[in-house]
Amino acid sequence: MNRRSFTMVVIFSLLLASIAACSDQADRTSSLAPTTSIKPESQVVSQQASQPASKEVLEIHSFDMGFKPQNLTVPSAGVYTIKLVNDGVIPHDITFPDGTVISAKANETVTGEVTIPAEGMNFICAVPGHEAAGMKGSIQVASADAAAITPTMMDDHSGPAPESDIVADESAPEYTLYDAKAPTALEGTVHEVELVVEEKDMTVAPGYVQHVWTFGGTVPGPVIRVKVGDTVRIQLKNPSSNKVPHSIDFHSSEVAWNDEMTSINVGEDKVYEWKANYAGVWMYHCGTTPALHHIANGMYGMVIVEPKEGLPAVDHEFALVQSEWYLGPQGDLVSLEKAASAAPAPEYVVFNGVANQYKDHPLEVKTGASVRVFVLNAGPSIDSSFHVVGTIFNTVIKEGVQLRPETANGYGSQAVDLAPAQGAIVEFTTAEDGLYPIVTHAFNFVGRGALGLFQAGDGDPKN
Ligand SMILES: [Cu+2]
């Protein structure tokens, strides 16, 4: 298989991931079942009487796997020409519930006619699996009751929205991009670090705002990077403007649980001092009861402890924290009930706090350059299988166990398994210009936000 077709297969595979993620949802809300409320018969008749004399053309592009636009509005009921432009690399169709099917091969444009009734009509791609992957849309009639217009999903290009009882708020603020670049190690050997707990609203995915608890105002909290032998003196502050007690637990420290890790009330602060005795990628988190809720609500971050002599220089370094969002009501805390389920089913699994943020804003690297990623699975409950599509990890240092090129006897690593609270350092290079998706290879979560991209060079392997 050549590189080009390999890339396409990869992208196609990623898109297929969302099939699994959302097949339940699709089953329950078959797009062929009308979702609009039916207008009174007399109104339908009068709408049909005002059919346009010449057929208006509605241009709909299909891609792998979606339609653009996905939700259209026409001025009145009647016969329309549908122009299907297939921008995808595989065949797609537009299938209407009245039996109208317009099919187009890759890079083909096909037109057909359909009669849009007053109550509007949904459409899907009937190729098996494509509807569940997000290939569905609707055509509404402008004069129809506005309340009857039910877009099937947000047009955010990221595949189907995850199954949730929480309705997306299209007026939610844009998310704030979390800088994935790993910081350099702090200078010196004794570090004073102030961590202020902030309770605040955060857009965790387009359309979803949660009232999160944070270390330092971001989820995850700041990456703290030191070396073995360093002393870290954390000043933890819980401002009086907050509502609940909080605490901090550094996995990189060796202290009694009922000493530095104890909670502080609002308006209090404390010092938590520890010595970095062991190298690795470590988790820190709030341990205040119920710790599950405090972690699920955003209180976690990464500590990097380098060996005393430091890590070898590489061209790029990134820090990625995988975690889960169990959505509570808009603007409220995440759902402890969902998070506490024996079979947890988060709406989102994310890298650095926000669903798909590095798919929308790829992490740029030089082609062929050495890339190091510090990875932490903050959970709280689901394992990660960290993988970068199209690369092989030549170095893995996971929980103290090392795979190094100089000692590997030719072995490499494809995915690093991280249970909640485990961390690793992985290193790889990119073979050519192009896109290298970042996923957890637990693929049901890729469609739920656990998707990013490394972009090597200009991102295009063909030029
Ligand atoms: Cu807390």
UniProtKB/TrEMBL annotation:
It is an enzyme of class 1 (oxidoreductase). The keyword Oxidoreductase applies. Residues 30-40 have a biased composition (Polar residues). Transmembrane segments: none annotated. Its EC number is 1.7.2.1. Keywords: Copper, Metal-binding, Oxidoreductase, Repeat, Signal. Belongs to the multicopper oxidase family. Residues 1-22 form the signal peptide. Homotrimer. It catalyses: nitric oxide + Fe(III)-[cytochrome c] + H2O = Fe(II)-[cytochrome c] + nitrite + 2 H(+). Its cofactor is Cu(+); Cu(2+). Residues 198-309 form the Plastocyanin-like domain. Residues 58-141 form the Blue (type 1) copper domain. Residues 30-50 are annotated as: Disordered. This is Copper-containing nitrite reductase.
